[in-house]
Design goal:
CATH superfamily of the largest domain: Ureohydrolase domain
Shape: globular
Number of domains: 2
CATH topology of the largest domain: Arginase, Chain A
Distance between the termini: 40 Å
Structural class: alpha/beta
Order of helices and strands: EHEEHEHEHEHEHEHHEHHEHEEEHEHH
CATH architecture of the largest domain: 3-Layer(aba) Sandwich
Radius of gyration: 20 Å
Number of helices: 14
Number of strands: 14
CATH class of the largest domain: Alpha Beta
Length: 388
């Protein structure tokens, strides 16, 4: 447990002053005055990363964690959850040194079955978190909430505009599925959309999500690692004054709902929130919103149902839907615990060890309804292609 303490700087003690006794700041196990918390007894482990040197347009985001933490500590705790705040990982001698620190910390925490929430810094830190999963040598699903796809021109150096390419091309490759939520088409090159199709990845435009926020729930239930870029939220919700801020995006209530879906997912083990920059946010509305996003994740995590993949299918109701014109059928499962739905995708017996965690796909009741009408759900088809 103590091995990761070398990476962290303690939290400023003034953040704990004048707090109501029922706030998060009064109950969190914090890294203060050289006393590193015993995170092994906690459900969720939280930390910041003060790194933005690979950011293309957002220098100053390294100062985000402290401002967000200040607002988070003031929120009242309405859930039964033990939380440790390890402090901040400061910049290493190089960006690669910081990546290595994040990789080592996330690896140690998820290896001990802790749920991790960390704050950037710039969004390229998501690549470091992914490498922690690759050290576990198990296939992993990544879900990003972002206004862009971040699959820019590949270069040997990771940056905030190409880090998804580095995840996709990393060897050995343990990425099974990548999905993105809330991208804005006019900000994304057509070639990146075409690559998503070629790889059978999932992508959902902002308008689609705006019309039905519930579509994000199965995507979060399918993810291991969640990356939230604050640029997915419209600038008027944040009070940001940045050149690359967009007038369009998710509303505050929507991004908080998505965070709650991520928290309640039994599969999500790490969530990172990136690119909040206090330099461009004099009002501090952005820090307040990110703090509330984290609060919603915490609340969701306190209400996890222990459905698949933690539980078994024994207590599920099974629904068999034949696919017209083929010898296949789609098997749907509905949990008695949560009323949530999954669908089963067949895979070759020789790939059982590799894909056993991925053949049960979270879905919605609407997917079952479509299948009942002879329409094969898109997610079933894309997953089937990846399993072959």
């Amino acid at each position: 447990m103590s091995s990761i303490s070398i990476y962290f700087q303690p939290i400023n003690s003034d953040l704990f002053e004048n707090l109501h006794k029922e706030t998060i700041g009064q109950s969190v196990l914090g890294h203060v005055d050289g006393s590193f918390p015993d995170w092994s007894i906690c459900d969720v482990v939280f930390f910041g990363v003060q790194e933005d040197r690979a950011s293309e347009t957002n220098m100053g985001a390294a100062e985000g964690p402290n401002e967000i933490r200040r607002e988070l500590y003031r929120l009242f705790k309405h859930f039964d959850l033990e939380i440790a705040d390890l402090g901040n990982i400061y910049q290493g001698a190089s960006v690669q040194d910081t990546y290595k620190a994040v990789e080592d910390v996330v690896f140690e925490l998820i290896k001990k079955n802790k749920t991790v929430v960390f704050l950037g810094g710039s969004r390229d830190l998501g690549f470091a978190a992914y490498k922690a999963y690759s050290k576990l040598e198990q296939t992993v699903n990544v879900c990003s909430v972002d206004s862009r796809l971040n699959m820019g021109a590949y270069s040997s150096e990771v940056n905030s505009g190409n880090y998804i390419n580095h995840i996709i091309l990393h060897e050995p490759n343990y990425l099974f599925n990548y999905s993105t939520i809330g991208y804005q088409t006019y900000l994304v090159p057509p070639s990146e959309v075409a690559l998503m199709d070629e790889l059978y990845f999932d992508y959902h435009r902002l308008g689609e999500i705006q019309a039905d926020i519930k579509k994000t729930e199965p995507l979060m239930r399918y993810a291991d690692l969640v990356s939230i870029n604050i640029n997915s939220v419209r600038f008027s919700e944040l009070g940001l004054d940045r050149e690359d801020a967009s007038p369009n995006g998710l509303y505050g209530e929507q991004i908080c709902q998505i965070m709650r879906y991520a928290g309640i997912s039994d599969k999500v083990s790490c969530a990172g929130i990136f690119d909040y920059n206090p330099i461009f946010n004099e009002s501090k509305f952005g820090a307040k919103l990110v703090a509330q996003m984290i609060w919603c994740f915490f609340e969701g995590a306190s209400e996890r149902k222990k459905d698949f993949p933690i539980g078994t299918k024994a207590n599920y109701k099974k629904y068999l839907v034949p696919i017209e014109g083929t010898d296949h059928q789609v098997n749907f499962y509905k949990s008695d615990k949560s009323d949530r739905w999954w669908m089963e995708v067949p895979y070759p017996p020789d790939k059982r060890i590799k894909f056993d965690r991925h053949h049960m796909i979270p879905c919605s009741y609407e997917d079952y309804q479509k299948a009942s009408k002879g329409i094969v759900p898109d997610l079933w088809w894309r997953t089937y292609q990846k399993l072959r």
